[in-house]
Amino acid sequence: MSLETTWFLLIAVLWIGYFILEGFDFGVGMLLPFVSRNEADRRAVLTTLGPVWDGNEVWLLVAGGATFAAFPEWYATLFSGFYLPLFLILVSLIIRGVAFEYRSKYGKAQWRRRWDVAIVISSAIPALLWGVAFANIVRGVPLEKSAEGHIEYVGGFFNLLNPYALLGGVVTLTVFLTHGAIFLSLKTVGGIRDRAHDLALKLGLIAAVAAVAFLLWTNLSLPSFNLKIAALSAGVAVAWVAGIAATLKRREGWAFVFSASAILLFVSDLFYALYPRVMPSSLGAQFDLTIRNASSTAYTLKVMTVVAVIMTPLVLIYQGWTYWVFRKRVSASQIAHPERGILDTATHVLHQ
Amino acid sequence: MNSLDLARWQFAITTVYHFIFVPITIGMGFLVAGLQTAWYRTNKVKYLRATKFFGKLFLINFAIGVVTGIVQEFQFGMNWSSYSRFVGDIFGAPLAMEGLLAFFLESTFLGLWIFGWDRLPKKIHLATIWLASFGTILSAYFILAANAWMQHPVGYTINLEKGRAELTSIVEVLTQKTALATFFHTIPSAAFTAGAFVAGISAWLLIKKMDVEMSRSTLKLGLITMMISFVMVFVSGDITSKIMTEQQPMKMAAAEALYETTESAPFSLLTIGTLDGSRSVFQIDIPSVLSFLATGDFKGTVEGVNDIQAEYEKTYGPGDYSPNIPLAYWSFRLMIGFGGLGFLFALLALFQMRRGRTPHGKWFLPAMIFLPFTPLLANSFGWIFTEAGRQPWAVFGLIRTSDGVSAVVSAGSVLFTMIVFTLLYGVLAFIEVGLTLKVIKNGPQTELDYEDPKLGGSDTKPLVMAY
């Protein structure tokens, strides 16, 4: 396997990791008001994410950094081309992270309500836009060779809002909602668990319709029938159906495994459809960015391969260990004084 | 303003803002880990109170540092795509390593630390804060190596056909003396910053007679941290300036607004009037000190802006190779000045604390309130000097900043995102400062019960930490 292909695969792995992990973060964030009946519920829901959300988000940073290192042309064309959607994602991630950390520090109801709104919106925007972005990458966008000889994006913002891409956005949005609901049903008890379970079923069916439509469209718009892409698409459908079935039977652990597998297969399918291109051009194959014309030198790829081969398993081990440490379900009854923030409680001051 | 100017402003705003929080995070992570270790070793509850109290402040600050860091990772591609294409083969590697080695480490173990009080045995819980702290320091190392490469590119070759710089030795990039000197300048600065924070806040608590037992100890800890780290900052700063004189003589000349090459060059303390090479109205000089600073010899020759300009025109072709000289001159002085001021306050306070005494005098309260701001200002001016002083280059000698900007991004887009980032960052600063002041006013929690948990914690007990 060539170094370029190795790195194409590694970047696919990073995006798979990101979408599986932050996928449920986004889902839980969006579902916050819909699975909670009171303040203790809301805090229990957020506590399921508390120890892990930041580590999950690092998958995105590493995917970005790895693209920069391994395929600088891809990094440069993609991020300057998809400027505004990316900007919206960044703003959302900024607000979202701060919202998680600051929301429950104060007890004031208004303060918390505002952060809750922020969490819902800032989870929904990236969940939608990542799908839009990836659908556009797969579909091909107007790329052209500039005077300096670089392949640059020449479409505008609205070019990115075509029906296929928007459908892709609906897929990631609904899939992450379902994935988040399944995660919540796995990580909580009582009312939250029941509500998350019901929502997982309903959302899972909506996501199934959207995903099937999107994958059909993807397969039909290929120049010729491709068995592997079709097989991966079928795999997505099977995993998703298995996830819904497991949810029905209240096998929450299995449901999570299946929804994560469906995301894994879905992202693999998209990357497989791309390969060996990283950003096809809609203006002709001569303007395609591929793993060859976008890549770094063999030396850089070798150096980065050594680092990735050593570090990725290590990261998986200690991140996995984190999930094991926090394996217990969170109960709303474990939140003592839910309406009190830690900044409200520290009032026993010694005056000497 | 065109998209280049706007992109430069945006980079300046987002980066200076991000770096307000970074040194606090790096330094406070280390000090909180130290406090928790003191508690672990001695079992004295005052150290547990200190760990929890400064831990709260650390986390409020960390949140903003993390989220503004995401912008740092992506704005190279968004606003500086031509730069990214040119340097990606080299510059991307330390960035990716930073993510894989450092970001994962700090974020994962910090999550474990925050929520692990009732989930991890005492010893493992202590290990998590050290690992998170190690992650922050490692992260600084990689990003500083990347920045050092922009100051002084090594281990590369230019591929003319592809129009880019290509990596030939990662070891050189990661171990060149510019990277190491910067690292040993920045990390102690972070410790100095955190020391000033801990000291300033502890002094306030001491004056308000809140948890005197703890605040005396942490005041001393903060002040001593400042003393030790100041010596390190001073020594590495001296080394850095000599490396800079050798590698970027223009930056040193600009720092002194020294237009003509001079032997036994004086160090100018301050200037009133213009810095454009004409005679200044009023100037205080210390004879020969600049020569010593730059070359290690009081009689050494320091090249002036005009000579370097002539030399660069021969090497790189016609153009202006000098940075904004008043900016370089003043930011260099303000960096040193604010750092020195913080050190003097700390020295004075520490002197008054000897033999168990409490600092006194009318100067004490205002000086201690101002104390945390001295390193913050010094840090910002230091980086403004480093980056602005390298101009017109993005990577010294290889690519100009003006050639690095994205070709396909319109000025309107950059302006729009700049306005939104600036407003958003402003609101976040307002909230962050509000929360920080609230924590300080509440003071440390005095009623703490701690039970050494077993791994995984309990199903039913109230959670020590919940979002």
- Tell me the major beta sheet of chain A: 2 strands, antiparallel
The portion of residues assigned to helices of chain B is: 55-70%
Mean pLDDT of chain A: 93
In N-to-C order, the SSE pattern of chain B is HHHHEEHHHHEEEHEHHHHEEH
Counting copies of identical and different chains, the oligomeric state is: heterodimer
Assign a percent range to the helix content of chain A.
Answer: over 70%
**Percent of residues in beta strands of chain B:** 5-15%
Describe the strand arrangement of the main beta sheet of chain A, using strand numbers: 1-2
In which order are the strands of the major sheet of chain B placed? 1-2
Mean pLDDT of chain B: 91
What is the C-alpha radius of gyration of chain B, as a whole number of Å?
A: 24 Å
Number of helices of chain B: 14
The coarse overall form of chain A would be globular
Question: Could you say which structural class the secondary elements and strand pairing of chain A correspond to?
Answer: mainly alpha
How many domains, in number, for the residues of chain B? 2
Low-confidence stretches of chain B: none
Calculate Rg of chain A over CA atoms: 21 Å
The major β-sheet of chain B equals: 2 strands, antiparallel
Secondary structure: number of strands of chain B:
8
Tell me what the structure shows.
With 352 residues, chain A is mostly helical. Chain A contains 12 helices and 4 strands. Chain A has helices spanning 3-35, 39-49, 53-70, 72-81, 83-102, 109-139, 163-187, 190-220, 227-248, 252-274, 298-325, 342-345; strands spanning 143-145, 151-153, 277-279, 289-290. A two-stranded antiparallel ribbon of chain A has the order 1-2. Chain A has a two-stranded antiparallel sheet with strand order 3-4. In chain A, α8 (190-220) packs antiparallel against α9. The longest helix of chain A is centred in the N-terminal third of the chain and has 33 residues, at 3-35. Mean pLDDT of chain A is 93; it is low at 346-352. Chain B is mainly alpha-helical. In chain B, 69% of the residues lie in helices and 6% in strands. The model of chain B has no long low-confidence stretch (mean pLDDT 91). Classes of the chains: A mainly alpha (352), B mainly alpha (467).
